[in-house]
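Progress note, sequence design subtask.
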């Protein structure tokens, strides 16, 4: 990998900058970056109008960002207009990129996303990871990371950081997987196993999925409960545009909420957890189907064809989801619930029973349920965009390390 970076973590969204003259300059650079990124293309004058600085001040900031390779000029903004047209600005399609990775129970995935949000390289490996030691899994992930970085470098990109989504509890140090029951991992320090030449952030896959929904969703509110599923089921709570992490960073373990306390044992040590009724493998068992590579496709196809046993299994899974979500909705009063991950592909058969449980059990008005358009790609995209947002939040810091 080129452009070695030796910080423990990327800047990350929302990172506080010092309240000094230098800190003010860095904040203003970030304001320019976010404004141009959000609008697509803008002139210097338009940026000045948006953020309330003088044109001269904005021009100085823009020139610095252009020299750093983070913003580029595209030519006259509106040819043919009366008066001298401004030069259109856009965040660069070259330079720093966010590298996102995902460790799933049955797959590994890595992608590179540029500052414009475009996926420029991607690699996926399918295969079971459950019960395997962390070291060989991470070695395979590292090879995928290197392949994606090499492909991105051919297009003029370099890694600004690596963010890894995992199906488990992650310590607040942003590198240690405390517990991942469906992988059978405990106290795994991914920071010691992954390459040390880029800043690293590790987080729960549901958290990254929720952030992807917040940043990339069409009309996602700033207060919502995001639920995603693979073998397990995770959730993330977003309040006023920020993740609610909890004291130890473990908030959102919806899959281990008991919906039937007398139910089957769960790998977490409990009984009757939601995952035992609404996780992919649980639904396949209830439907009498064998697990395959495309479990969601198998279930959706059979359900669409009218298979009554599959539809019954999905109906029961939706009911279990509704029971578990009722407690969260009553406690948190979110604006909406968003179904992501595998649940998005099964929504037509899950929603009727899920919504019926919510309507019948919540204390207030029924909470609306939306379906994510990102589906199973959410955690991977959220991880990559975490790094990209870190660049937008502190462009000066990133440029200094290039």
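Output:
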């Amino acid at each position: 990998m080129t452009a070695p970076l030796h910080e423990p973590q990327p800047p990350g969204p929302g990172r506080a900058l010092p309240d000094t003259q230098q800190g003010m300059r860095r904040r203003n650079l970030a304001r320019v970056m976010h404004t141009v990124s959000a609008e697509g293309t803008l002139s210097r004058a338009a940026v000045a109008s948006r953020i309330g600085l003088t044109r001269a001040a904005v021009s100085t900031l823009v020139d610095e960002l252009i020299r750093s390779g983070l913003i580029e000029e595209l030519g006259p903004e509106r040819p043919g207009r009366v008066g001298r047209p401004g030069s259109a600005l856009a965040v660069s399609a070259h330079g720093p990129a966010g590298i996102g990775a995902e460790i799933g129970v049955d797959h590994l995935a890595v992608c590179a996303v540029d500052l414009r949000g475009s996926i420029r390289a991607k690699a996926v490996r399918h295969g079971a990871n459950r019960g395997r030691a962390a070291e060989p899994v991470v070695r395979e992930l590292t090879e995928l990371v290197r392949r994606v970085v090499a492909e991105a470098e051919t297009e003029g990109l370099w890694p600004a950081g690596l963010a890894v989504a995992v199906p488990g509890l992650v310590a607040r140090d942003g590198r240690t997987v405390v517990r991942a029951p469906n992988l059978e991992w405990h106290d795994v320090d991914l920071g010691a196993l992954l390459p040390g030449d880029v800043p690293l952030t590790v987080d729960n896959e549901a958290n990254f999925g929720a952030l992807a929904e917040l940043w990339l969703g069409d009309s996602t509110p700033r207060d919502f409960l995001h639920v995603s599923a693979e073998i397990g089921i995770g959730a993330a709570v977003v309040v006023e545009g920020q993740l609610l992490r909890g004291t130890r960073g473990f908030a959102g373990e919806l899959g281990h909420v008991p919906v039937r306390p007398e139910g089957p044992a769960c790998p977490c040590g409990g009984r009757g957890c939601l995952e035992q009724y609404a996780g992919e493998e649980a639904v396949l068992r209830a439907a009498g189907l064998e697990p395959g590579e495309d479990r969601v496709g198998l279930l959706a196809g059979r359900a669409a064809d009218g298979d009554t046993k599959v539809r019954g299994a999905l109906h029961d899974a939706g009911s279990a989801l509704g029971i578990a979500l009722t407690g969260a909705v009553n406690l948190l009063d979110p604006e909406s619930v968003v179904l992501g991950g595998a649940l998005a592909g099964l929504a037509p058969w899950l929603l009727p029973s899920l919504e019926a449980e919510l309507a019948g059990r919540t204390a207030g008005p029924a909470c609306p349920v939306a379906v994510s358009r990102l589906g199973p790609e959410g955690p991977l995209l959220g991880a990559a965009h975490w790094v990209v947002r870190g660049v937008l939040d502190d462009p000066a810091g990133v440029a200094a390390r290039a």
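The two ends are 12 Å apart (CA to CA). Work on this subtask will continue into the next period as scheduled.
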